[in-house]
Amino acid sequence: MHYRTTASILTNHAVSRKPIDVSSTFLDLFFDVISDLTFGQSFNTQTTKQRSPIVVEFLSKQKALGFALLNMPLLHLAKNMRISVKKQKSWEGWYDEALNARSKKIVSTSDIYTYLSQSNAFSGNALREAKLAIVAGADTNAITMSNICYLLCRHPEYQAKLHDELSGLHSLFPDDYDLMYKPYLNGIINEALRLHPPVPFGLQRVTPAEGAVIAGRHIPGHMNVTTPTYALHRDSRAFVQPNEFIPERWFSRPDLILRKDAFVPFGSGTYNCAGKPLAMLQLRMVLAMISRRFTMAFAPGQEALCQYFIDHQADCFTLHLEPLPLLFERRGV
User: Fold this and answer.
1) pLDDT for 203-220, tens place per residue?
2) How far apart are CA 266 and CA 276, in angstroms?
3) For residue 9, what are the contacts with CB-CB under 8 A and spacing of at least 6?
4) Is 319 strand, coil or helix?
């Protein structure tokens, strides 16, 4: 339903020949999807054109919160400030109400809440898990889809290749099983995740009390460590032509990948992102939907704004995006 609403919104803009800010559009889409999956009730931002207070609050505080997440001592300090605690309690109250409402609802299909609630530790972690699911499940996908669209407008030849690859599908909303092994579709997504990982600084970890040896160096205990994902993905020791958009490196040109284990947009190891399969499923379905229906281009006269979008992506733990005005044209499907 949510994907069909997005398709309708894009179609209306294509018919009217009006540019649309895709970074905002995708944010609304994925917040609607993840709220539906988590609480069994969507924010319905796309249909009401009104963002939930939770989304508005997140966006207004994204830069400050991101700075704190990248500087953990400041985050702990902020948590103990009275004004911060007051706002945090208000935020948490909304999630408490949503979780309570979902616990009383009988649903016909499983959702994220279904699986989270089966954990023995759910009662103590429900609030934290819900907040993580909502923000991490929406923001990162919106970032990735926006960057995919930017790259496809910068390299329009891949729009044609992707459309040709998907032309044999019968449904305009195909099942993910039909998309999982499409080389250009997955190659374009992976290449966008490599060039513009939604969590560019990487995930922080704490060394054990006895310390740890990392890359031949001893790191003392209780130290925060991280591997900056953005830098790793553009390291010439891991990827040939690391700054170039070459989707073929993920299927027909494996020689362009020197270290496949250096590709970690979802983290790595035991504590990698549990939402990776869901994220990839959504990215494939949305990109396939767009490719089969539309061609995209930078909005005429707004090329400078589109360049500003890619040049001013702020690292706020996840990327903070500027508007990306694109012009969509309908294909003859």
Assistant:
1) 888 999 999 999 899 999
2) 7
3) 20, 25, 46
4) strand
